[in-house]
Amino acid sequence: MADPTPRKRALGPFGGLLAAPLFVWLLALVVLPNLILIGYAFCDRDDLGQVVPRFSLEAIGRLADPTYVRILLRSLWLSGIATAACLLFGYPVGYYLGRAPERWRSKLLVLVMIPFWTSFLVRTYAWMILLRSEGLINALLQYTRLTSAPVDMLYTEGAVLLGLVYAYLPFTILPIYASAEKLDGALVEAAYDLGASPWRAFVHVILPLTRPGIVAAALFVFIPSIGMFAIADLMGGGRVPLVGNVIQNQFGQGRNWPFGAALGAGLLLMFVALLAWALRKDGEEALHR
Amino acid sequence: MEAMIELRGVSKRYGAVDAVRDVSLSIPSGEILTLLGPSGSGKTTLLRLIAGFETTDVGSVWLDGKDVTRVPAYERDVHLVFQSYALFPHLSVAENVAFGLKMRGVAKAEREKRVSEAIELVQIGGMEKRRPNELSGGQRQRVALARALVCRPKVLLLDEPLSALDAKLREAMQVELKKLQQKVGITFVFVTHDQESALVLSDRIAVVNQGRIEQQGSVAEIYDRPRTAFVASFVGDANIFRAKVLSHAGAKLRLSIGKDVELVANHPGRTIGAEVTVAIRPEKIRFGFEEDEPQMDGTFLATVEQEIFRGPLVQLFLRTEGGVEIETVAAARSAERQTAPPAKQTWDPAAPDSELPRISGRQPSAKGDRVRWWVNRDDVVVVE
User: Fold this and answer.
1) CA triplet B137, B139, B144: central angle to 5 degrees?
2) I need a surface site. Which of B237, B334, B365, B371 has the fewest CB within 10 A?
3) Which helix (H) or strand (E) holds B217?
4) What CATH number is given to the structural domain containing A89?
């Protein structure tokens, strides 16, 4: 039997140089800016809102303000629900695409990509047209006499949630597609063969074996949706501010860069912790593959 | 004997391909049956139909006297050992073996007992905690066997179970599987394209070709009395000749092959002049040096065209003057004797050479040797 773990081909002593552009890019555009951001979080500002390079814990201290804690919790909550909804709708699609006959797969995958051909903002405005009081859905509801007055749909938490799920669903489908495609069909048959009903085969074999895809999908939705401000702005009409909106505000009209930086650094820390946790679990799995 | 599995007039199509065509098969309880055929012959489809992964287009599948044609795989008391073994990579050896019992709701204490028995049975004790990727090919196969056997299925299906093992291990596993089957008494159905494994392992063989079963019977029947040229050449080696019927008397046919060979076969009458196909196993061809063998009716002269050394055997290709090519085998003696000039072998060095029985050590085996050959009429098999 062939060695099941193909060995990596050696790249020679300078092989590492191939990754140099990536490292430079990461250093210049990710590590450095984030360090500056963290630095700003500990800076003071003058009366006009100009950042002053003087050590201060004021910005960090404001993070404990109940207003912002509430916004953070709401962001976490909405992002959590959006993640769950994306997984719920995205998993069956991703799994179906990944298990489809090979010659269909790439064609079906293109369907998932089609929404990206239209600008994100245009698509979000389209939703607004559908959802607003004089919008298509309300017109239909009233025309069919299901409701007598327009239903408030736009500028609600529900609208923000809808916007998030709509925006991130393709990003859930892709990693799940990838792990479903890798899943060996014989394993699913083996589960049936050993007496597992379709549901139990799903729980005991399919789900654990597509876990890496689920974890990746969850992170792809959860992390960006916490920082997302455009959807909350447009679909929430500013009535449902999320952390992203607050940060945007601090760097914009609020003219409080240190506080914005503190919020940003706080989120960053949270994501790093989350990612480390998720990767640790997956690293363990990878060892056993 | 009671049939454990019965296929009744089963057909299955995939698009434009007839994978299985009107197959009827009955497998007695407690036997090892091999579905033997080349790849694409439909043998794997038959296996999947029995396992319940495919449903028949026409015909029915019976398991232990019950019609299971529409029963899904997870409710059939049949387990399959997959060609790739299909061990669950996220579960340990013990968890893999316990899987079927868990799905059937066997209580934990009972489960643990049966898992350790099964692990004992296939001799992989001490590896319970390992993951499949930490096992060798042979060990994986044992885990796959234990996982299927632990549920005590009525039938165990094995899809090319030995193909992933190297030659030495394959031989050992053949013997072990046979012993294992005798121990557990479960009906085994093998699928393989490897005729050697089929001969070693099976009680009965069903030769599958182009979606049909060409012949089924005991191993000896299949080997000694192949019904078709395909069976004769797929199971073991065979000389296949086109022959013309010269005459027939009773159950005997007189056949002519090529320009200079005439053979007698046991076969009920055929019209004179008709063309038939005959199969003769290489080892059934008898031969000796031309000068050692008396010239008689039914013996023919030929020249060794080529010899191929195969370890215990030498494969010889003979050719008659009339151009008939015959494949045969001889036991390989020591190399010197094969190449030594013809000399009478003696078993008592003191006795005068001419009075001693000749020992068959002297046998033609070199290119250019002139031989006289013949074949018993029982060994000339007329096939379709």
Assistant:
1) 95
2) B334
3) strand B212-218
4) 1.10.3720.10
β-pair partners for B307: B316
Tell me the C-alpha distance between B239 and B170, whole Å.
Answer: 28
Q: How far apart are CA B324 and CA B259, in angstroms?
A: 8
Nearest-CB residue to B89 (from A193, A204, A288): A288
Range with the poorest average pLDDT among A133-137, A155-159, A280-284, B126-130: A280-284
Test A289 with B89 for CB contact under 8 angstroms.
Answer: yes
- At A216-249, the pLDDT tens digits run 999 999 988 888 888 888 888 878 888 888 998 8
Q: Which one-letter amino acid corresponds to residue B298? A: G
Domain-located, residue A256: yes
Structure tokens belonging to residue B245: 């019927």
Distance from the A194 Cα atom to the nearest Cα atom in chain B, whole angstroms: 5
Whether chain B has a CB inside 8 Å of the CB on A195: the answer is yes
Instruction: Calculate the dihedral angle through the C-alpha atoms of A118, A119, A124, A130, rounding to the nearest 10 degrees.
Output: -40
Q: What is the pTM of this model?
A: 0.80
**Residue A200 counted as domain residue:** no
Residue A206 contacts B, CB cutoff 8 Å: no
Backbone angles phi and psi of A141, in degrees to 5: -60, -40
Contacts of A185 in chain B (CB under 8 A): none
Residue ranges of chain B with pLDDT lower than 70?
1, 333-362
What number of H helices and E strands is found in chain A?
15, 2
Shortest distance, CA B237 to any CA of chain A (angstroms): 28
Where residue A253 falls among pLDDT bands split at 50, 70, 90?
confident
pLDDT computed for residue B147 by the predictor: 95
Specify if A125 maps to a domain: yes
Residue A209 lies in a domain: no
Predicted-assembly ipTM surpassing the 0.90 threshold: no
CB contact under 8 A, A189 and B99: no
DSSP lists the bridge partners of residue B204 as B33, B218
Instruction: Verify whether the Cβ–Cβ distance A1 to B136 is below 8 Å.
Output: yes
Give chain A's domain count: 1
How close does chain B come to A5, measured CA to CA in Å? 9
What's the CA gap between B330 and B289, in Å, rounded?
13
Query: Which of A194, A287, A289 would best serve as a mutation to test chain B binding (most B beta carbons within 10 A)?
Result: A194
C-alpha dihedral sign at B36, B38, B40, B41: negative
Q: How far is A8 from chain B (nearest CA, A)?
A: 18
| Interchain CB contact of B347 with A (< 8 Å) | no
Q: Which domain holds residue A87?
A: 23-182+214-288
Give dist(CA A131, CA A112) in Å, integer: 23
- State the smallest CA–CA distance between residue B33 and chain A in angstroms: 20
